[in-house]
Amino acid sequence: MTAGRLRVATVVTRLQAGAGIVALRGAEALADRGHEVTIIAGSGDRLLGEAKTEVIVEPALRASIVPRDDFLAVRRLTALFSRRSFDVVHTHSAKAGAVGRLAAHRAGVPRIVHTYHGFPFHEFQSVPRRHAYIRVERRLGRITDVALCVGTAVAVEAIRRGLLPPERIRTIAVPVDAACPVSPQARSRARHALRLPGSAPVVGAVGRLSYQKAPEHFIAAMTALHRPEVTGVWIGDGELAARMRALAREAEPDARIVLAGERADVPALLPAFDVFTLPSRYEGLPVAIVEAMACGVPVVATAVNAVPDVVRPGETGLLVPPCRPGLLAGAIGYLLDRPREAARLAVAAREQLDDRFGTGALTDALEAAYQPLPSIVDREEFPCT
Fold it and tell me: Which segments constitute the Glycosyltransferase subfamily 4-like N-terminal domain (predicted)?
């Protein structure tokens, strides 16, 4: 492997949502620089059709733990990596990280890189389950050359948990389009696209309808606002869609909730919101929050993982504890009642988005991660649990 043209396999469990977007944007930026990139995904949505690089769908690569499928995915990926002679295998997300790194190691791939968008372990799990996931990640860390962590808090947690030696851990940001429109015309177009009234207050969220994102807390917060004139909009789909539709119906008439489903034009829709919120239980650094900031929308989010990298309380947005929809409602109401304060936070948030959040910075980080490091002594002991 040299510093020239590289053959890279980008492996992601689902080519969708934040991890899928970061993986796709990185892969396509690498291709633009002359590298040969193949994306391998277990599933996906519109991003599968939008990808400009080669895409291989591996159905056995699933998010849930299914031993028969997991072993099959390892076997198929090992054969693929051996046959194609990739210089680098770069994995994203927990399942693809486990299956993909193990297969790459078995195939003798020269360089194995993993991106932590968050972790499979979190405080809402039982202690035995959480410790089991940590032990798995530590073992995988021994066959990982470099870990790229989306956000400072994610990198700090990886170091604190001893997932890899510190010198193998690097922090990256999410790539967003800094040219997101901020204008009355953009707001009008976005509201028309979402079929929303032009003047009514709108509180929006973007993310998978999943346990991690806590959409039920979004609906509870909108109900706790006690403002039926405010419309809550959630953009995204997922396994909790049916349950959220039922909760949205139950919230009427105290709250109006619009579940907009999966959309391909999220950045163009964000200007429709007066406030952007994300009630996640746990996170890495969500692409949607940074995109909302780029679009000039004030943000209220939960104080989890790397979110405080960009949402600094009282400076670039407001933070509340997770699983506290009443406090979330209070923070949303505070910004709705104080448009000048909301605008101040939005301006400061947008101004912080420098070159670190551009595609060029991500591509530089990827190319650096793909180059060999000097030999490092492997650490076998992790004294802290």
Answer: 18-178
- 184 Cβ contact partners less than 8 Å away, ≥ 6 residues apart: none
User: pLDDT tens digit string along 125-159?
Assistant: 899 999 999 999 999 999 999 999 999 999 999 99
Rounded Cα distance between 18 and 353, Å, is: 18
Which helix (H) or strand (E) covers residue 330, if one does?
helix 325-337
Which domains, ranges and CATH numbers included, belong to the chain? Answer: 7-175+358-369 (3.40.50.2000), 184-354 (3.40.50.2000)
Q: Are 281 and 124 in contact (CB under 8 A)?
A: yes
DSSP code of 272?
G
Q: Please choose, from the candidates 270, 307, 293, the residue with its C-alpha nearest in 3D space to the C-alpha of residue 342.
A: 293
Contact, 371 vs 3, CB < 8 A?
Answer: yes
In tens, the pLDDT along 266-284 reads 889 999 999 999 999 998 8
> What is the reported pTM?
0.86
3-state secondary structure 167-183: HHEEEECCCCCCCCCCC
Q: In the sheet where 256-261 sits, what is the strand order?
A: 256-261, 231-235, 202-206, 275-278, 299-302, 318-320
Cβ–Cβ under 8 Å, residues 206 and 266 = yes
Instruction: Please calculate the CA angle 208-45-187 and round it to the nearest 5 degrees.
Output: 65
pLDDT band of 19, cuts 50, 70, 90: confident
